[in-house]
Amino acid sequence: MIEISANSALHQNMIRWRHWLHQHPELAFQEFTSSDYIADVLESLDFEIQRGWATTGIVATLKGTGEGATIALRADIDALPILEQNQIPHKSLHKGIMHACGHDGHATMLLGAAAYLKQHNDFNGTVHFIFQPAEEGFGGAKVMVEEGLFDRFCCDAVYGMHNWPGVPAGEFVVHDSEVMAAIDTFYITIHGKGGHAAMPEQTIDPIVIGAQLVNALQTIVARNISPLEAAVLSVTNINAGKATNVIPNHLTLAGTLRYFDPMVGKKLKKRMKKVLKNICKSMGATAEIRFELGYPATINTPELAQQCASVARSLVGDNAVHRNRPPSMGAEDFSYMLNACQGAYIWIGNGEGQGGCMLHNSHYDFNDELLPLGASYWIRLVRKICA
Ligand SMILES: [Zn+2]
Ligand SMILES: [Zn+2]
Q1: Superfamily for 9-180+297-385?
Q2: What is the Å distance from ligand 1's center to 22 Cα?
Q3: How far is the CA of 202 from the centre of ligand 1 (A)?
Q4: Centroid of ligand 2 to alpha carbon of 25 (angstroms)
Q5: CA 190 to CA 288: how far, in whole Å?
Q6: What mean pLDDT is reported for the chain?
Q7: How far apart are CA 331 and CA 342, in angstroms?
Q8: CA of 77 to the centre of ligand 1 (A)
Q9: Domain spanning 182-293, CATH architecture
Q10: How confident is the model at residue 354 (pLDDT cuts 50, 70, 90)?
Q11: pTM for the whole thing?
């Protein structure tokens, strides 16, 4: 028996909370009504809360009956700029914004655990429930850490959980170390010399140079990075020219880098600069490259990941907890919390059925069946670590 059973009164409440959040999605750092709603639920449960972390973040604290470890459990609360295509009663009321990453479900599972543990605080230690804004590209976790989250709430460990479509509902994936990749964005401008397309000998054509560059960049992962290291270099955007009879002056190109090891990231960037400089030099052009550093890699603390896996196994059995799945090349700002405090971040299967399409898809919907299981995972984790 898991702590919160399916169709229990708490499950029904959680579905209500989840649907409300789904109907009122908000973008990074603008989660004002979501934050109010979560705060209202927490206050109705008699929690003392701290608001205003990274603008809309909330931390609720619960003490157990005895002394013990202090841990933090984190859920993200923001949504994405996607027009929802689902025809469901709880469809987004905010046109062009939707909970396509299931953060409505994450916030709800954490609220469910908070509700249950408030009634059954038979653990030793302290739990901080963190509701974090702006995971989707804006680094709300970074802001909370920089605001002194772990100075104010001194923690022995911090834990996160993300739903994962494609993994059956009722199953978990726990990585010992690497879970999600680091991300950096690059922006390149090539300066050529425009002119008449019928007189190319009088120009320095940035389009021909750009075409060579895209191919040459692909050799970096293939030929400069060890095949045993993970790395991605994707050019995702090229812009140059408007007319069919004009060679333009400039070409811009942008894309994304993904990797786990910071040394690999360094090498990618060093090689990109060199390849760009030399291709342009050979063709008589000049260029600039700029990198925007994104989230670092999300790396679990192995011993704590093992504890998470044993909690998950106690809920769903050994065969439903996957320990050898490859990490994702997607990124996650929980990495900033893991860089500040040891901990672990796991995946809970969102299922394959209706709404089982991948994260960030306009047909995605968080699976309500998971709510009791995810909340029970949090509850058992607290009872295990704060034993
Ligand atoms: Zn997402
Ligand atoms: Zn997400």
Answers
A1: Zn peptidases (3.40.630.10)
A2: 14
A3: 48
A4: 13
A5: 7
A6: 97
A7: 18
A8: 11
A9: 2-Layer Sandwich (3.30)
A10: low
A11: 0.94
